[in-house]
Amino acid sequence: MTRFRVDPPKLAAAVAQMTGFHKVVAASVEEAQSVMARLAPSWEGEAATAAREAHRELHAGAQQMEEALGQLKRFLDNAHQGYERAIAGNSRMWGVE
C-alpha cells in the first residue's frame, strides 16, 4: 500500500498561488488585447498580419491555459475540502479536537 501525506495549509497555499497566477495571466492577455486594438486601425502590411496571427495564437493559448488552470484550481479546492473533512471526521472519531 502506498503511503502519502497531505499538508492542508500547503494545499490551500497552492490554490491561492494558482489563483494569483491565473489573475496575472488574465491581466497580461487583456493588456495585449488592448494594445492590438489600438494598433490595428493604423497598422498594415506583413508585420501587421504576422502580429495579428501571433495575437490570435496567444489568445487561443491563453484560453486553453485559463481552462486548465480553472480545472486545476477546482481539483485543488475539492482535494483541500476533502482532506479537511477527513481530518475533522477522524479527529471526532478518535476524540482529538
What is the makeup of the main sheet?
none
Q: How many β-strands, per DSSP?
A: 0
Q: Structural class from helices and strands?
A: mainly alpha
Q: How far apart lie the N and C ends? A: 28 Å
Summarize model confidence as the mean pLDDT: 88
Q: Low-confidence parts lasting 5 or more residues at pLDDT below 50? A: none
Number of H/I helices: 2
Organism: Mycobacterium talmoniae
Protein name: ESAT-6-like protein
Family: Belongs to the WXG100 family.
InterPro entries: ESAT-6-like_sf (IPR036689), T7SS_ESAT-6-like (IPR010310)
What does the model show?
The chain is rod-shaped. The chain has one domain (about 25-90). It has helices spanning about 10-40, 45-95. Helix 1 runs antiparallel to helix 2. The chain has two helices and no strands. About 85% of the residues lie in helices and about 0% in strands. This is ESAT-6-like protein. Belongs to the WXG100 family.
What's this model, at a glance?
The chain is mainly α and 97 residues long. Helices cover 84% and strands 0% of the residues.
Observed structural traits:
mainly alpha; 84% helix
Secondary-structure map with pairings?
Elements: H1 8-39, H2 46-94
Family: Belongs to the WXG100 family.
Protein name: ESAT-6-like protein
Organism: Mycobacterium talmoniae
